[in-house]
């Protein structure tokens, strides 16, 4: 009887997508706690319940897994923006800001990872993150600000570049400073936070309301 063999490095599980997703989930858990240099492929594979050769099979190496983890997290937001622009549409901030805040709320590990690996660390992922993720989101935000000003939905004195910086700062800070926000300010970062915070940001950027007209006595 001839045995059926799998090629070197091929996954033995019946559901390859389940293997891939298990590796990404394990990578997310480990990279949320440790740096790229300190987390090993062996640790990630063990947590995912697969052989470490599966990392090479699906992602090429640890760097490929790291990038796939970020793509899995931020990619849907970027694709939504770029697909809208491919149709000749400009994303509106009232749609974009809640999506951005919801992405961070669903992945509270992400802001701290960015600070550790991209801002303060000497990680090789600084350029990767800036070019593949941050610059694309920033470009969409600038175009959304331009469109909002043209339509009168945003302050006409809002500079698109500084407006983009404002949005990055306002959306990311609460999740980075969660203990301060919750304990010192008394604002719970719960399931409703992303929507409520997005409304406050949009109110800050909205054009000032005209003063009420004097009524005749």
From TrEMBL:
Gene3D superfamilies (UniProt xref): Tetracycline Repressor, domain 2
UniProt-listed Pfam families: TetR_C_29 (PF17938), TetR_N (PF00440)
Keywords for this protein: DNA-binding
SUPFAM superfamilies in the cross-refs: Homeodomain-like, Tetracyclin repressor-like, C-terminal domain
Known DNA-binding region: 40-59
Domain HTH tetR-type, chain residue ranges per copy: 17-77
Database matches in PROSITE patterns: HTH_TETR_1, HTH_TETR_2
InterPro entries, A to Z: DNA-bd_HTH_TetR-type_CS, Homeodomain-like_sf, HTH-type_TetR-like_transc_reg, HTH_TetR, NicS_C, Tet_transcr_reg_TetR-rel_C_sf
Keyword DNA-binding attributed: yes
Protein name from the UniProt record: TetR/AcrR family transcriptional regulator
Species this protein is from: Thiorhodococcus fuscus
């Amino acid at each position: 009887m001839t045995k059926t063999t799998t090629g070197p490095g091929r996954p033995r599980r019946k559901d390859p997508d389940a293997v891939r997703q298990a590796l990404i989930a394990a990578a997310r858990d480990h990279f949320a706690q440790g740096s790229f240099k300190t987390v090993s492929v062996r640790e990630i594979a063990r947590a995912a319940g697969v052989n470490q050769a599966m990392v090479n099979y699906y992602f090429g190496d640890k760097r490929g897994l790291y990038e796939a983890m970020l793509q899995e997290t931020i990619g849907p937001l970027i694709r939504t923006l770029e697909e809208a622009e491919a149709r000749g549409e400009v994303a509106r901030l009232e749609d974009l800001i809640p999506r951005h805040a919801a992405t961070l709320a669903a992945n509270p590990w992400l802001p701290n990872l960015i600070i550790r690996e991209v801002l303060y660390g000497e990680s090789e992922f600084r350029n990767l993150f800036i070019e593949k993720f941050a610059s694309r989101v920033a470009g969409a935000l600038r175009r959304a600000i331009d469109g909002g000003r043209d339509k009168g939905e945003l302050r006409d004195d809002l500079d698109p570049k500084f407006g983009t910086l404002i949005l990055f700062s306002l959306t990311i800070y609460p999740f980075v400073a969660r203990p301060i926000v919750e304990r010192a300010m008394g604002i719970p970062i719960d399931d409703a936070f992303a929507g409520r915070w997005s409304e406050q940001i949009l109110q800050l950027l909205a054009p000032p309301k005209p003063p009420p007209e004097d009524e005749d006595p």
